[in-house]
Specification:
CATH superfamily: DNA methylase specificity domains
Strand order of the largest sheet: 4-11-8-9
Shape: globular
Helix content: 25-40%
Number of domains: 1
Number of helices: 6
Radius of gyration: 22 Å
Largest sheet: 4 strands, antiparallel
Structural class: alpha+beta
CATH topology: Adenine-n6-DNA-methyltransferase TaqI, Chain A, domain 2
Length: about 240
Amino acid sequence: MAKLIYEEWFVKFRFPGHEYVKMVPSELGEIPEGWKVKKIKDVIYSIKKTIKSDELSDDLYYLPIDLIPRKSMLLKETKPISDAKSSLVSFKEGDILFGSMRAYFHKVIIAPFDGITRSTCFVLRPKSLDLWSFSYLTLYQDQTVSYASQHSNGATIPYAVWKHGLGDMNIIVPSKTVIENFEEKLSPILKNIMLYFFKNQNLRKTRDLLLPKLISGEIDVSDLDIHIRNELLES
């Protein structure tokens, strides 16, 4: 839903009140009056806070690029912090992680926690809080991922670059009023997506706790009123 709303407002320009806004020419074609063409680096910071493995605390999550899902906003798992060894960078809850190694795999998520990744990911942060939802969904667009892929170095394992690369991509930045309206509507949706990780972790812990007890018979479910469809019994 978040992606569809973004495209409706900022690709098709059908944002609330669009019928009262004049379209004006720009280097990216006609855009609503009051909107501007800027570079990604004008609205988003690239954070490069390196950290050594012996400086890590046990309460941090380790999220290497291989665990970031392809073309999905839902993060499911992490690795033990003890697995974090080299080329480490830290990130904060709410930062945007953009897979720079083989960028065409489209690995772009919002971090639901403070943690550690590797230099194979960009750690990105909007320069203004009201640009958070807009920044993430701009980076999540196929067009942005394609641009990053095209501006990569290396033949065998291409790496996207920020300077003279993704950071220099031209984007259309809406007026402050539209941005604030968008943030108000989209921020709750994206925060719910972030919570999915913790809900999934709790379900896994519950499963791991109950399954051995069910198998051993320690928990008796014979008295539960459970109805199973015939087709499931036959499968």
